[in-house]
Amino acid sequence: MPAKIGSKRAKLSAPSEIPPSAEPPSAEPPSAEPLPAEPVPADLVRADRVDLRQSAVRSVDATDVTVTQGAVGLAQAERVHVVQGAVGVAVADTVELRQGAARLVLARGPVRVEQGFAGTVVARDVEIGAQGFVGVVIAREVRGGGRILLDWRGGLALGAVLAFAWAVLRRRGR
User: Fold this and answer.
1) Can you list the residues of the chain whose pLDDT is less than 50?
2) In 3D, which of 93, 95, 94, 77 has the Cα closest to residue 85?
3) pLDDT given at position 157
4) What's the pLDDT score for residue 25?
5) Is-contact 71 56, C-beta < 8 A?
6) How would you classify the pairing of strands 110-114 and 117-128?
7) Angle at Cα 111 formed by Cα 108 and Cα 113, nearest 5°?
8) How distant is the alpha carbon of residue 174 from its chain centre?
9) CB–CB of 48/63 below 8 Å?
10) Fewer CB atoms < 10 Å away: N or C end of the chain?
């Protein structure tokens, strides 16, 4: 039986393959080095095209990055596409999140969030699907039926309120 990741199975020889001069098999199973049960994250991946599937990488620098059921700490690319995965920071021309999550997205072009979550998005155009959610959006144009916690107008209003409250509290302290 071939070895499997996370198991202690090893390839066993059939009895006909044991030479006659060998000692009889012991009662203990043959020992095999245990294989890691979880993938070990890589440090930095540089390539034209990176396709991650069920993997974790600290940093990616590429032209095209596709993450499927995986995680990337920092993705720097022209195009970033995440499906059922997570990205800490995505810096790209275009970004697409489908059933994925991103903490911070910085894009020169369009960003699309479908059934996913993005903490903060700074982009030219943002499209949020019906089941998408974005915490803070700073964009020229925002489309779609998704939810936005705070856009640039709300951020401006919140900043004005906080500045006013800070000024009042500062005067009271004198």
Assistant:
1) 1-19, 34-38, 40
2) 95
3) 87
4) 53
5) yes
6) parallel
7) 160
8) 48
9) yes
10) C
Place of tokens 């959610």: 133
Distance (Å, whole) CA 117 – CA 102: 6
State residue 33's pLDDT score: 57
Instruction: Give CA–CA dist 13/153, Å, rounded.
Output: 70
| DSSP character at residue 144 | S
Q: Are strands 110-114 and 86-98 parallel, antiparallel or unpaired?
A: parallel
pLDDT of residue 13: 36
Cα 158 → chain centroid: 30
Length of the chain: 174
Q: What is the structure's pLDDT at 76?
A: 95
The pLDDT, as a whole number, for residue 45 is 85
User: Under 8 Å CB-to-CB from 123, ≥6 apart: which residues?
Assistant: 95, 105, 106, 107, 108, 109, 110, 111, 138, 139
What's the pLDDT tens digit per position in 112-128? 999 999 999 999 999 99
pLDDT value, residue 11: 35
pLDDT, residue 26, reads 53
CB-CB contact of 126 with 109 (8 Å)? no
Residue whose structure tokens are 């998408």:
132
